[in-house]
Write a structure and sequence with these properties.
Strand order of the largest sheet: 1-2-3-4
Largest sheet: 4 strands, antiparallel
Helix content: 40-55%
Number of helices: 5
Structural class: alpha+beta
CATH class: Alpha Beta
CATH architecture: 3-Layer(aba) Sandwich
Strand content: 15-25%
Oligomer: single chain
Number of domains: 1
Order of helices and strands: EHHHEEHHE
């Protein structure tokens, strides 16, 4: 039952995707607003959503030098029950510099998953992120951009 905070490893993203085959649909680490914009009821749907969502998280893990990804692991079971993504901005947060990381943008002719309301997803994130500069102090700061705990594990102190 003890919980341990650890740095995410690249292989953790595949482990998290595989949660779709183990746990009930929606008992996963898909962060808001994705569940609002893409509901799931089956393991197959949950896996497709996790693959899409974790691809974006992995992209940031590998390519965004501001990102620090953490996980909470149940030391008895070895399960990842929560994850977070913090960002360090030594010169302050800039919406202009960071917006492309949060939203889903078309590339190479790739199509959106039909099940996802990408327009609503992007609108929610753009609205939230654009406001940050109005209330955040200029200068060095940490920003928590992603925090989610599996539904079945909430209330245990992971997040």
């Amino acid at each position: 039952m003890p919980l341990n905070l650890q740095e995410m490893q690249l292989s953790d993203f595949d482990t998290i995707i595989n949660h779709a085959d183990i746990y009930a649909p929606n008992d996963d680490l898909v962060g808001m607003p994705t569940p609002l914009c893409w509901s799931v009821t089956t393991h197959q749907e949950a896996r497709k959503r996790l693959e899409f969502h974790m691809a974006k998280q992995k992209q940031r893990f590998l390519g965004d030098s501001t990102a620090r990804c953490l996980k909470v692991v149940d030391s008895d079971s070895g399960e990842i029950i929560s994850m977070a993504r913090w960002h360090w901005y030594p010169a302050g947060y800039s919406y202009t510099d960071g917006a492309h990381w949060e939203t889903h943008n078309p590339k190479d002719g790739a199509e959106w998953p039909q099940e996802m309301n990408v327009e609503a997803h992007n609108h929610i994130l753009r609205s939230r992120d654009a406001e940050r500069e109005t209330w955040m102090q200029k200068g060095p700061c940490w920003v928590l951009m992603h925090l989610v705990t599996r539904t079945s594990q909430r209330g245990r102190g992971a997040a």
